[in-house]
Give the backbone structure.
Amino acid sequence: MHSTLANLALVSLCGAAQIACGQPTTELGLFSNQTDVGTVQHRGEARFDAGRDAYIISGSGANMWFTNDDFHFVWKRVSGDVDLSADIRFLDTKGLDHRKACLLIRQSLEADSAYADAAQHANGLTSLQFRETKSDNTREIQARVSAASRLKLQKRGDYVILSAAMAGEPLRPTGAAFRLPMRDPFYVGLGVCSHDASSMTTAEFSHVQLTELPLTGGSPSNGGSSLEVVPIASKDRRVVYYTDEHIEAPNWTRDGRSFIFNKRGRLYQLPVTGGQPELIDTGFANRCNNDHGLSPNGTQLAISDQSQGEGQSLVYVLPLAGGEPRRITTTGPSYWHGWSPDGRTLAFCGQRNGEFDVYTILVEGGAETRLTTAPGLDDGPDYSPDGAFIYFNSVRTGLMQIWRMKPDGSQQEQITSDDNNNWFAHPSPDGKWIVFLTYEKTVSGHPENQDVALRLMSVSSGKIEILAKLFGGQGTINVPSWSPDSKEVAFVSYRPTYDSAEQKKSP
């Protein structure tokens, strides 16, 4: 254990009884220094009340956002993995709604430093905010919980993870996590920003704990699932639903009111406002995978289920309200991916004679039509909203890339050509954008538990930008998940956890 962190953890455990534990009472308790970061009009201040085990911190500053931060910071320089948690409340009743009291992990004391914080806003907004690299723009993942009384910011491996608790409840994961590698040593501490350069605000951080964590063992695995939404304009994400269970592949219903996702072989419907998911009656189909989606009129649901026959996935259609599925494909494995805008045709990926290719079939059933014949995997077909193209991904030129073709399979052309593996292209309802999932070039297939990115491509210019980085992969965005107004994308991310995650505290 690092000696500095051993002392910190000891003070944290002793709390108000520091003198009895043999630790001197200092002005800043667990922390070693304080400073104003960035440009502030009013000098901040902080004091530690040992009797109440509380830090009273006042700070000014225009904001902690965009490319620079202005705030008051009480800090300690540390290395390794840590937990920082505290009860947080504002002591003043006046000020802007977006003034912030934060738990921080920060690479440096420079105003434009890379950082992450667990931010409690005066209006109740609770979020994980981060600047990935020096001078980059700040982004955030908004948690479902509002006005949490206690927050925890964990640095574990290359990830930062936000947990929160309401009054009287234990800390629980919020589903907000982000990959943010930090070089040792870095800064950890408490920050306050008034969000108004001309004023001060004061917050209390009590029962503060700073705990060293053991080294991680191997790669992270899935510790829980977050159904998230990201607006393509701001790229600031919000968690709609979090569960410790494994969920996959959200669709956005055509009326914009609900999400459809799969869990343990069944499909569930969840209001976009959050709440509890409700099971969709899919009859005998109890081994549904993550390839499902809605008809253009929003009344029918295409599913891929492997509960019948020899256990190979087959495509079925049933009412969205629930009912007995009607079999569409006669041969398996077949995995649904797209529905033509006129509602007449389904596009799917099928394996025939050892080759995976793109096929279409009428919703009424009948003979399937093979559209791709190139050696290697062709997968993930989805129609453009005007019906002019089918987008798909193909490995035929080496790495997995995005392609498109006419609905009859003609004029196949490559759309992306970069040093990544790109999967599951989905056109926006207005036809202006394509969203797709990107893996690193060394990753084969589309496995789970990977560092991946959602990327956004302009149909008109071909320009590609990163929409979100996350821990995910299989199950993140296999199927169409655009909002009906083309402004947002739904996806699933996973909470990274490690086999050696048991925490250790200093004696």
About this structure: The mean pLDDT is 93.
